[in-house]
Amino acid sequence: MDEESATLPNGGSLSRKVVTVAAGEAHTLALTGDGFVYSWGRGMFGRLGTGAEADELFPVRIKFNDPRSAEERRLKLVGVAAGSYHSLALAEVLADFCGRL
């Protein structure tokens, strides 16, 4: 397997190395080194973060945007956690946002 990317059975690919994995009751999250989050497993209650309740057999990249900004700015995600019915992605506080506090 290539260190930079991994091809998935469904033709998709992870963008970089996985640096953190979190396992919930029936779903899994992976955080890659470039800050992307992927989820797969049972989608009940929307816990995969895809906007649907469909189950996913293979990792699906979750799309985030920064609600504090009119333009879509990419959040720098630094951690993930999962529980029975939820998923959590932790974003690093942006330096320019802190300057406005």
Automatic annotation (TrEMBL):
InterPro entries: RCC1/BLIP-II (IPR009091), Reg_chr_condens (IPR000408), Signaling_Regulatory_Domain (IPR051625). Keywords: Repeat. Gene3D superfamilies: Regulator of chromosome condensation 1/beta-lactamase-inhibitor protein II (2.130.10.30). RCC repeats lie at residues 35-93. The keyword DNA damage does not apply. Pfam families: RCC1. It comes from the Eukaryota. PANTHER family: BTK-BINDING PROTEIN-RELATED, INHIBITOR OF BRUTON TYROSINE KINASE. This is Regulator of chromosome condensation 1/beta-lactamase-inhibitor protein II. It comes from Prunus persica.
